[in-house]
Design brief:
With about 290 residues, the chain is α/β, with parallel strands linked by helices. The protein is about 45% helix and about 20% strand. The chain contains twelve helices and twelve strands. The chain has helices at about 5-15, 40-55, 65-70, 70-85, 100-115, 135-145, 175-180, 180-185, 205-215, 235, 255-260, 270-290; strands at about 20-25, 60, 95-100, 125, 150-155, 165-170, 170, 195-200, 220-225, 240-245, 245-250, 250-255. Strands 2-1-12-9-8-5-4-3 form an eight-stranded parallel β-sheet. It has a two-stranded antiparallel sheet with strand order 6-7. The termini are far apart.
């Protein structure tokens, strides 16, 4: 049997802290030293970020859409980054936010979580708003392959209130989403007690994250919104729970603040750029670890 994804992720978090490095190749944020904006520069920059993060952080999170903008060449660059991460034994959450019905969902699930994937990842983000049946194909493949599924619940963007916070039978919709997933959360639970059926719980809503924890039980959280989106480390771990002397329960993502720190665009050499990224990773890690011990 393949090792449970939640157990693998929790082991990394306990070793390195809950930090997740986002790899989001916005054309305007790729330093010129990696070449003109395009799929080759995105691959070179992504691989360089991976090298800086390897052995230091719990997990990386490439953003599929920012590679897909360059079509088949962009997808090839994404595959290179994910394959390199797998070769270095790095955990990968692919931020793709897929969501569809029946055989279409099965195609996405096998394409990214299946054993023969050309874009290997350990988990993938999915959108639940077409119904629980759209998530089942991902959970089925995740069970078989020891992978994870990350479901959007309460996201960090300002527009999340448009639908996710709407009251249905007196409760916000995102809590109904969490409750409906409890059987799937149980199916992907590992020996650690945590489940690889993860939920997105934005750092910009710490009270909502605490409520989501009550509803979701053992689901690990993927927490966006820390760093460039304005939330601090304490807000980011609001949905974590105390285990011994440390809070745990998920990973906290940062992209722009770490992948493109101040001065990175103007860096004149790879070593200068690496130093800036290393410092940004170390600072974020230290801040998040301190928050889990508060």
């Amino acid at each position: 049997m393949k090792t449970n994804f939640a157990d693998r992720l929790v082991d990394r978090v306990r070793a390195h802290g809950p930090f997740c490095v986002g790899i989001d190749p916005h054309p305007s944020l790729i330093p010129p030293l990696f070449g003109p904006p395009g799929p080759e520069a995105a691959a070179s920059w992504g691989l360089a970020l991976l090298e800086r993060a390897a052995g230091k952080v719990a997990v990386i999170k490439p953003q599929a859409g920012l590679f897909e903008r360059w079509g088949s060449k962009g997808l090839a660059s994404l595959e290179r980054v994910c394959s390199a991460a797998a070769a270095q034994d790095m955990l990968v959450i692919l931020d793709a936010k897929r969501g569809d019905i029946g055989t279409t969902a099965e195609g996405y699930a096998e394409g990214y979580l299946g054993a023969g994937s050309s874009c290997p990842c350990d988990a993938i983000t999915v959108n639940p708003y077409m119904g629980v049946d759209t998530i089942e194909p991902f959970v089925a493949v995740a069970e078989r392959e020891g992978k994870g599924v990350v479901v959007l619940a309460r996201t960090s963007n300002p527009g999340s209130k448009d639908f996710q916070a709407k009251l249905v039978d007196g409760r916000p919709l995102y809590l109904h989403v969490a409750s409906s997933l409890l059987p799937m959360i149980a199916r992907l639970r590992g020996d650690s007690g945590w489940s690889g059926l993860m939920l997105v719980a934005g750092a910009t809503g710490p009270e909502d994250a605490a409520a989501l924890r009550e509803a979701a039980g053992d689901a690990l959280f993927l927490v966006p919104g820390y760093g460039a989106q304005g939330a601090g480390a304490v807000e980011a771990v609001a949905g974590f729970v105390k285990r011994g002397t440390t809070r745990e329960g998920g990973v906290v993502n940062a992209s722009r603040s770490v992948a493109s720190p101040k001065g990175a665009l103007e860096a004149s050499s790879a070593s200068a750029w690496s130093g800036l990224v290393d410092s940004a990773i170390a600072a974020a890690q230290a801040e998040l670890v301190a928050a889990t011990k508060s």
